[in-house]
C-alpha cells in the first residue's frame, strides 16, 4: 500500500539520512518514477524533503525536522530497541523490522539532542530469543499463525499429546505467547470446546482454513503461569546429589539458595518437583553425574527407567 511505503520511506530517511532514488526503488520494488512521486507527496504533506544532485546525491529530510519533545528518554528508547531486536530474532516479520527502524530513528534523534551522553559503542543488554541447540525453523509457523489471528481464520493441525499420539485439532487462535524461548498458542479448541494453550513445537501440518470465526472472550493470560491440571504428578520435596563435574549445568538450572556444596565438591540440591516424565527425563539426562536421595520412590523409578534403557540397547532385534 502506498501509505505504508510513504511511512517506511520517512522512517528510513530519519534513521539513515540521505538515500538515492535508486536505493529506495530497489528496497520497495518500485520504479524510480514512483519514488519521485512519493517524494512530492511527502513534501505536500509538510515533510521537508531536500533533493541533492550529483554522484552522492539523493533525498534526505532537513536536519531541523525533528520532534522537539519526547515522552521517552534516550535510556528508555534504548531499552525499546533492545526488546524489539530480541523479538526480531524470533520472528520472520516485516512489520517487526519496520518497528525496529522506527524506534531506532527516534533513538537516533534523541541521542543527537543529548550529545555524547547516551551514545554507546556496545548495547548494554542484548536479547536473542532464538535458542542454541534446539529445533530451528519455527519462524514460518509463527508467521502463519499470526496471519490466522489477524484474519480471524480457523487453523487445523495435528497435535502431539502427552502419550505421543498425534491428534487432529481445529482451533481458533487468539494469541501467540513467547515464554523464555518457547512459543505457545492460546486458542479455542473446537474438539475440547474450551480454551487451550498449545506448544508450537508440538503442532504439525499447520493449515489455515477458509472458515472465519468471531473472537470469543478469553481468560486473562498476561503471564503464563503453571497450572496444576497440566500434570497429575504430585509435587514433593526432592533432594538430588550431583557430582562436582556437573557444577556448571547445576548452576544453570538451580538458584544458589537451593544448592549446597559438600567438602568433596559434590553438590546437594533441595527443590520442589512434580515427579512426572519431565522430572525423570531431566534426571536421566545427567547420566551418572546425579543420584536421587529423596524421595526413595523417585530413586527407584529412575533405576527402573535406566534398566529399561539398558534392555533396549541389549535387545538386538530393536
How would you characterize this protein structure?
By secondary structure, the chain is α+β, with helices and mostly antiparallel strands. Among the domains are: 2-61, Orthogonal Bundle (Arc Repressor Mutant, subunit A); 139-217, SH3 type barrels; 235-314, no CATH class. It is built from 9 helices and 11 strands. The protein has helices at 2-16, 21-28, 32-44, 74-90, 94-114, 139-151, 247-253, 277-284, 296-314; strands at residues 49-52, 58-61, 153-160, 166-179, 182-189, 194-199, 203-212, 235-242, 259-261, 267-274, 290-294. The protein has a 5-stranded antiparallel β-sheet with strand order 6-5-4-3-7. Strands 9-10-8-11 form a 4-stranded antiparallel β-sheet, covered by helices on one side. A hairpin with a 5-residue loop joins strand 1 (49-52) and strand 2 (58-61). The protein is elongated and about 80 Å long. InterPro entries: CBASS_pafABC_assoc_protein, DeoR_HTH, HTH_11, PafC-like, WCX_dom, WH-like_DNA-bd_sf, WH_DNA-bd_sf, WYL_dom. One of its GO terms (molecular function) is DNA binding. Residues 2-57 form the HTH deoR-type domain. This is DNA-binding transcriptional regulator.
Strand order of the largest sheet: 6-5-4-3-7
- Report low-confidence residues grouped into runs of 5 or more: 67-71
Helix content: 25-40%
**How large a portion of the residues is in β-strands, by DSSP E?**
15-25%
The separation of the N and C termini measures: 58 Å
Task: Put the structure in a nutshell.
It comes from Paenibacillus glucanolyticus. InterPro entries: CBASS_pafABC_assoc_protein (IPR051534), DeoR_HTH (IPR001034), HTH_11 (IPR013196), PafC-like (IPR028349), WCX_dom (IPR057727), WH-like_DNA-bd_sf (IPR036388), WH_DNA-bd_sf (IPR036390), WYL_dom (IPR026881). The protein is α+β, with helices and mostly antiparallel strands.
Amino acid at each position: 500500500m502506498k501509505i505504508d511505503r510513504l511511512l517506511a520511506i520517512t522512517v528510513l530517511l530519519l534513521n539513515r539520512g540521505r538515500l538515492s532514488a535508486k536505493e529506495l526503488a530497489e528496497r520497495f520494488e518500485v520504479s524510480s518514477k514512483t519514488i519521485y512521486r512519493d517524494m512530492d507527496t511527502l513534501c505536500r504533506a509538510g515533510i521537508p524533503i531536500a533533493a541533492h544532485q550529483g554522484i552522492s546525491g539523493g533525498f534526505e529530510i532537513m536536519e531541523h525536522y525533528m520532534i522537539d519533545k519526547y515522552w521517552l528518554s534516550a535510556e528508555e528508547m534504548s531499552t525499546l530497541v533492545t526488546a524489539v531486536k530480541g523479538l526480531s530474532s524470533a520472528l520472520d516479520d516485516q512489520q517487526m523490522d519496520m518497528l525496529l527502524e522506527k524506534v531506532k530513528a527516534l533513538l537516533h534523534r534523541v541521542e543527537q539532542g543529548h550529545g555524547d551522553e547516551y551514545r554507546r559503542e556496545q548495547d548494554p543488554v542484548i536479547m536473542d530469543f532464538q535458542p542454541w541447540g534446539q529445533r530451528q525453523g519455527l519462524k514460518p509457523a509463527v508467521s502463519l499463525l499470526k496471519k490466522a489471528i489477524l484474519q480471524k481464520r480457523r487453523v487445523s493441525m495435528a497435535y502431539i499429546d502427552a502419550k505421543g499420539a498425534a491428534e487432529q485439532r481445529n482451533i481458533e487462535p487468539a494469541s501467540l505467547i513467547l515464554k523464555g524461548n518457547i512459543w505457545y498458542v492460546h486458542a479455542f479448541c473446537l474438539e475440547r470446546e474450551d480454551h487451550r494453550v498449545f506448544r508450537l513445537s508440538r503442532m504439525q501440518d499447520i493449515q489455515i482454513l477458509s472458515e472465519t470465526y468471531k473472537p470469543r472472550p478469553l481468560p486473562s493470560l498476561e503471564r503464563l503461569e503453571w497450572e496444576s491440571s497440566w500434570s497429575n504428578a504430585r509435587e514433593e520435596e526432592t533432594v538430588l546429589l550431583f557430582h562436582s563435574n556437573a557444577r556448571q549445568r547445576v548452576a544453570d538450572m538451580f538458584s544458589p539458595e537451593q544448592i549446597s556444596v559438600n567438602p568433596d565438591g559434590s553438590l546437594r540440591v533441595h527443590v520442589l518437583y512434580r515427579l512426572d516424565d519431565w522430572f525423570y527425563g531431566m534426571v536421566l539426562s545427567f547420566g551418572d553425574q546425579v543420584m536421587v536421595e529423596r524421595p526413595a520412590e523417585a530413586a527407584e523409578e529412575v533405576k527402573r527407567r535406566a534398566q529399561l534403557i539398558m534392555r533396549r540397547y541389549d535387545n538386538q532385534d530393536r
